[in-house]
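#random but structural
TW: two for the price of one
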Amino acid sequence: MTENGVRNRRKKVKQNGEAIHEEEKKEYEEFAIRESPLTVLLDSSLHIRAIYHIFVVILLVLICDTVIFDLVESGKINIGLSVIADGFGDIRRGIKLWAYDLFVSMSFYPLLIVYSWIGAISRKYPVLRSTVVTLGVGGFLALEMAVAAVPVFELGRKHLELGSSVAVTCEMFRFMMKLVAIASACGPRCLNGNTPLPTFKHFIYFMFAPTLLYRDQYPRTKKIRWGVVVFHLLEVAAIIFYNCFLWERFIMPYWSDYGKEKTVEAGMVVRGMFACVLPGVISFLCGFYCMLHAWLNAWSEMLKFGDRLFYEEWWTTSRFSLYYRRWNRVVHSWLRDHIYLPLAPYSGRALATFIVFFVSSIAHELVLALSFGFFYPVLLVEFGVLGVIMVPLTATAGRRFPNAFNLLMWLGFFIGNGILWSLYPMEFFARRNCPPSENDSFFIPKSWTCPEVILKPNWTFQNPLRIFYAN
C-alpha cells in the first residue's frame, strides 16, 4: 500500500471513529444535576410509593412468619442475624485487603506527578518520547497488577466468607476501573503539557465519587442533606438483612444439606429450583435497589455529587440492548468510553460489542468465583452467551411488540435468577458437605458428581386427565 493509501485509510478510520463517538454521545449527556429515576417516581407517583410500601410489608410479614415458626419449633428467634454474622466473617482481614488496594491506588497520584516531570523532559528531547510512553504504559500495568494480585492471592490462599469477599472483589475492580479512567485522561497531559493535572484533592474526590468516568469538574449540589444520607444507609442495612433473611428462609432449607447423602432425588432438585425463583428475583430487585440507588445516592449526597442518573428505566424496556445500557449506567459508561469507543472504529461495532460483553461477563464471573471459592460459570453463560444472543433477537421484534417482549424479558429474569439461586448454592454446599476427593478442583463443579441424582423409586407418570376419562 502506498504512503497516500495508508494516510487515506488512517483518515477514514479517524472519521469513522469520530462519527461513532458523536452518535454515542447523543444518547448520553455530560454530567448534570439530576435525580435518580426512582427518586423522581417515588416523589411524584403515589402508585410507585405504594409498591415500595408493599415490599416493606412483605419483609415485615416474612419476619413475623419466621418469628412465629422459630418460637413454636424451638423456642428461640433467629431471623437472619446469624447469616449476616457468618456472611461477613473475618471482616478485619477483608478491611486489610481493602486498605491495601486503597493505598496502592493512592500511590498513582505521586507516580503521575513523576511521570509529568519525565514527560516535560521528553518534550525537550523528542527522541525519548516513545521510551517515555512505553515506560508509562508499563508502569500503569504494573500498578493495576499490584491492585489485583494481593486480593486474588489472599482469597485463593484462605477464603473469606461470602459477604466480605464480595465487598473486597467489587472494590478491587472499582479501583482498577477508576485508575484506567484517570490514566487515560491524564496520561496524554503529562506528555503534551497543555492541560494541568488535577489537584490531589480532586483526585481523592474522584476515587470516592459515584462515577467511573473522570472529569476535571463535576456538577455539585449546594449542601448535604444528612437526613437523606441516613435514610439511604438504613435502606442498605435493611436490604442486606432482607437478602440474608431470604437466604436463610428459602435457600438453606433446600440446599444446606445438599451432599450429606450419597443420593438425591431429581424431583427434589427440580422442586428446589422452582422454589428459588421468587426469592431469587426479589433478591435481584433488592440488590439493584441497594447498590445502584440507595448506596450510590447516599455517597452522592455526602460528596455533593449532583448527577444521580446511575440507571435508567430498564424495567420497561423490551430490548436486551436497552436493558444492558440502562441497568447500570455507571459501569456501562466506563465500558463504552474505555473499550467500545476505542475499538469500534477499527474492529467494527459488532466485534466491539462482543468484546464489551465478554469483558463484562468475565469480570462478573471473577467476582463470583473469588467470592464463592470456586469457578462455576453459570452467570457467564446466562450473561455472556444467552444475553448476547438475545440482543439481536429482540432488536426488531422488541420495537414491534413491546408489551409481549417486556413480559418475556421479565420471564427471563425470573427463570435466570431462579437458576442462579439454585446452582450456586448447590455447588457451595456440595463442596462443604461432600467428602474430599482427589478429583476436587477449583474449576470442576463438585455438585455434578456428589451427590448422585436419581429418579424416585417406583415413580411413574400419572395422566392428570384420567379422572375425566373415568367419569
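TW: number two ↓
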Amino acid sequence: MGFAIRPGERVMSAVRTVLGDLPAGELGVCDAHDHLFLRSPLLPGQELDDRDAAAAELRAFRELGGGTVVQWTPRGMGRRLAELPGLARETGVHIVAATGLHQAVHYGPDVLERVDDGLMESFIADLTTAPVRAGLIKVAGGFHGLDDHARRTMAAAAGAHHATGAPIAVHLELGTGAMDVLDLLCGQLGVAPGKVVLGHLGRCPDTRTHLRAARAGAYLAFDGPSRAHHATDWRLFDALTALAEAGHADRVLLGGDTTTAAARGGPGMPHLLRVLRPALAEELGEDFVRQVLVGNPARAFAADWPR
C-alpha cells in the first residue's frame, strides 16, 4: 500500500532528516515513534546497539511500504547520530533524529549536573549546525505530573523550538500527565499545540484526556504493540475509534517504539504495517489509515527551518 500527499493537501515546508531537509509530502508511510539505537542504565543488557539489526529492521519496514522512521532517542542515550545517514542511504528509509533529554533516571550525575548549563543552546546546535542534524526535540514528563527536571528540560525545549520551529515530542510516563505537559509547553511557554507530539497515550486508556488533548490541537502518538506489562492492543482500537468519531483523526500518529534488544525478536517495526495497518483499514477504513500514517506525520514533523 503506497501513499503520497494528494495535490492540494496542506503541509508545512520540510521535515529535517539525517540526510537533509525533505519536503513533507515526500515522507511516505511513517513510523512516528521508534528507536534504532538506545542505551539506558534502566535497561542493562538490553541496549539497541547493533547496526546490522537496525538495518534489517529498516529494510523489513521498507519492504512493507514504509518510508520514514522517526527516532526519538535523545541526547546521552546512545542515539549514534553518525550511523544514521549511512543507514538511510543503504535502506532507502528516511530517518528523523532527535535532540532533547529524557527523564533524569536515564542519566548519570555528570549529565544531570549540566542540565541548566546551556541546554537550550545544545538543542539548537543539534537542530541547526551539527554534522548530522536532529529534526525534533524529545523531552519527558513524569507519572501523572512534572518534576523539576521535566520543567527545566521542557523550558529548554520550548526555547529551542521558538528559535528553530522544531516539533517537540514528549514521553508521557505510562501515558499520563498529558494536560500538565500542554499547560506548561503551550499555556506557559508559548509553544503552539500543533507543534507538540504526545507519546504513549495508548498506555493510559483515558478517552476523556485523549479528546481534551486532541481538542487542544496536539498530536497524539499511539506507539508500540503490547508489552508483557501493559496490554494496549485491544484498547487501541477503542481509543482511535473515539477520536475518529469525534472528528480528531487528523491528530493521530502511530509508531512502534522498539526500546530493547529483546523486542527485536518480537513484533519490531514491521508490525506497524504487517499487522496493525490492515486491521485498522478493516476497522476504520483506508482513508483513516492513510491519514494517520502519511498525512498527519507530514504535518506533525515539518517546520519552516531557519537557513
